[in-house]
Amino acid sequence: MSDQVPDAVPELAAEHVSLHLGPARGGVQALDDVSLTVRSGRRVGVVGESGSGKSTLLRVLAGLQRPDRGEVAFRGRSILGRRPRELADLRANVALVLQDPRSSLDPRMNVGRTITEPLRSPLLRRTAGAPEQVRARLTEVMAEVGLDPEMFRRFPHEFSGGQRQRIAIARALVTRPAVLLADEPVSALDVSVRAQVLNLLTELVGARRLTMVFVSHDLAVVRHLCDEVAVMAHGRIVEAGPLAEVYADPQHRVTRDLLAAVPRIRV
Amino acid sequence: MTDDLLRVEQLRVEFGRRRRRGVTGIDFTVAPGQRLGLIGESGSGKSVTGLAVMGLLPETARVSGSIRWRGTELLDLDDKEMSLLRGDQIAMVFQEPMTALDPTMKVGRQVAEALRLHHSRGGSARGTVVDMLDQVGLPEPRRIADSYPHQLSGGQRQRALMAMALVNSPDLLICDEPTTALDVTVQARVLETLDEVLDAVGAACLFISHDLAVVSQVCGDIMVMRDGELVERNSTDRLLRHPQHPYTRRLLRAAQLDLVEPGRQILLEDE
User: Fold this and answer.
1) A211 beta partners
2) C-alpha of A91 from chain center
3) CB pair distance less than 8 Å for A267 and B240
4) For B105-155, what is each residue's pLDDT tens digit?
5) What is the pLDDT of residues B185-203, one digit of tens each?
6) Phi then psi dihedrals of residue A100, to 5 deg
């Protein structure tokens, strides 16, 4: 099935990760012994209902949340317990796009500054391969995501929801990362705008051979973008495998429920 | 035909001094028990249409044309007369249950208040409220009645809103993107319940959404709106099988992600 060298070092890997959130008694087991391997060039979908732990897993992979137990590694090196400046490599190469661009973009910062902010980070400036010509890179990345580069002085509220998500994607890609982590990036969008952003992601991921982890509650969206899938429920991965196989022959009840729930046009 | 519940003619809504157009002279009718979907992108004027029928547009809106409810011109009614209809004969469910519910009041009391506003009978309110919460598929309706909105999940809050809207057995329920903020599994269950409850209450429904797939699960007829105009109206079956307007065809393609080969571009240009 796989065209990868099986023992090649994965881009990202979580091994036996567990995380309890909230008070020791009465909190929730957000992640319960979760292992996920993301190989270079693969597009992995993580699906589940709200509260299944899929966003928490993404935060752990992004190094934004430390698990109680288990190991998380980027290109074979643990990212746990390291100082911020030792994570420059991770930050430059692993970018994050969140669901709601209205809350993830700073309303007081113009679009040009928003998109190039990662380039001005002292952490990333020192990384090899970081773009040096900030202005040139801004023009380039805005065009890549389908925004008019002339609009760089405008503010987020002057853009539509779909355009704001393009801004968020531009900021994520400005450092030319190898890995894109996306948390429900199209869930807050109209169906028509969703289709446009999916087209953009398909194009970008294909052209730049991005490795991607894509979190969603919508299995139809994941099927469109990903080639592997992990299905989560109650903090655990209950089913995982090549997307086509899981989609055609779901084994777990949760996967079947998610498939049945996808809104479909029945003619 | 005077049998129509709702008859909208040449409805035009403009906003502000610059007369920004929200709706540009639309006509449609809703018959008793009919389920009519209204779809379009954000900014197409579909929510404005729903709010116009409810008499809930902001003061900056200029409304002209005609909105008749059982022959009565709603645009001629004053606030007091309109509020007698609203929540009683015509009710509405909004997208964001967290902002539509009062966070400081128990759910049961909010539903009871909707009931009391229009029917001033005292003792039996609690029973009616609990029955209604049960009917919209809330587990342990007594416990839910004594809970605050923040103690419920997103799906449960949307069900509570449905209970509030339906407790007076309205003749028309206007739903504005009622499941857009929910994830697909919860959405599927809420839509199923809506389907059952509309049948049980016998209410007609104007269902506003951007998602053709969602609308087609609930409605027998669909209108398509773009830039404040209705570009197509047909039975759901015909609209899906033989979409006439290029814009309808585009919406259809955007909603049929499962027909696109993975990794291929979704065709979004008008043919």
Assistant:
1) A179
2) 13
3) yes
4) 999 999 999 888 887 665 678 899 999 999 999 989 999 999 999 999 888
5) 888 988 999 999 999 989 9
6) -110, 100
Measure the CA–CA gap between A255 and A261, rounded to whole angstroms.
10
CA pair distance A99, B201, nearest whole angstrom: 37
pTM of the model: 0.86
CA gap B8, B220 in Å, rounded: 19
pLDDT per residue as tens digits for the range B199-257: 998 999 999 999 999 999 999 999 999 999 999 999 999 999 999 999 999 999 998 88
Q: Are B160 and B135 in contact (CB under 8 A)?
A: no
Q: Cα dist. A238→A49, A230, A231, B68, B116 in Å?
A: 12, 8, 6, 54, 48
A261 or A1: whose pLDDT is higher? A261
- The answer to whether A254 touches A43, Cβ cutoff 8 Å, is no
The pair of three-digit structure tokens given for residue B103, joined into one six-digit string: 């966070």
φ/ψ of A162, rounded to 5, equals -65, -40
Measure in Å the smallest separation between the Cα of A127 and chain B Cα atoms.
32
CB-based contacts of A35, cutoff 8 Å, min separation 6: A13, A14, A15, A16, A17, A70, A237
Q: How far is Cα of residue B161 from the mean position of the Cα atoms in its chain?
A: 12
Task: Give B151's contacts (C-beta < 8 A, 6+ positions apart).
Answer: none
Residues of A in contact with B263 (CB under 8 A): 202, 206, 224-225
CA distance B115 to B113: 5
Q: Take residue B145 and report the two structure tokens written for it.
A: 């009645």
Residue A6 scores a pLDDT above 90: no
Q: How many CB atoms lie within 10 A of CB A193?
A: 21
By C-alpha distance, the chain B residue nearest A216 is B183
Largest CA distance in chain B: 62
A191 has a chain B CB within 8 A of its CB: yes
pLDDT digits (tens, 9 = 90+) for A170-183: 999 999 999 999 99
